[in-house]
Amino acid sequence: MSPRRIGVLGGTFDPVHIGHLRSALEVAQSLGLDEVRLTPNARPPHRDMPQVSAVNRLAMVESAVKDVRLLKVDARELQRDKPSYTIETLESMRAELAIDDQLILLLGWDAFCGLPSWHRWEELLQHCHILVLQRPDADSEPPFALRNLLAARSVSDPLALKGPSGQITFVWQTPLAVSATQIRQLLASGKSVRFLVPDAVLAYIEANGLYRSPI
Ligand code: ATP
After folding, report:
1. Listing from the earlier edge strand, what are the strands of the sheet with 71-73?
2. pLDDT tens profile 20-51
3. Ligand 1: distance of its center to the CA of 99 in Å?
4. 158 lines ligand 1 (CB under 6 A)
């Protein structure tokens, strides 16, 4: 069997929206991945608590990808009662894969630049490749702490990633102008978020009265 190629996109998904989904699907198709796993964070180490429960965020992500062959949900971070450190998630995924399967961590440019503050960040590339989602208009000067790593590990062609882990590559993508913050604000002020989230997510939000209170 040829090695599997698996993308991982973490986030609070509070709620999941078309920006996340398009981005994941475009990466999956352009790199020919077997799947991209959307991995909701429990208690993100770098930000505030999500507004709705893990159960609700997970249910929304599951309903969003239900009929999408290339997108999957990985709930393991919600099953731990401690901060969601990416290194531990990758170690745990790696333990379930064949030795030559590829794991590819999808990170926005801003998240990538913040990597040196992550728990055990220098070990990440032992478990995965990193695919940086670069906006065409982004300032592309990386922080000093990442220069040596980039010089040693970058490959310019994302289709040329080799082996199970260890390389960094870039994909240029114009993100859809939508954020979960914007969606929460619209809902809190009684406005519709139709077309910003899949219909199944909209139905879940409405059925459960989520995000209605002012934030
Ligand atoms: P918030 O507004 O609450 O900060 P968000 O919309 O940025 O949320 P997250 O759950 O924090 O969503 O994002 C998870 C991942 O998805 C991050 O890597 C983030 O960069 C990426 N992402 C967020 N919005 C978009 C978008 N519109 N297009 C592509 N990727 C996105």
Report:
1. 71-73, 35-40, 5-11, 102-108, 129-134, 168-172
2. 999 999 999 999 999 999 999 986 556 677 88
3. 31
4. no
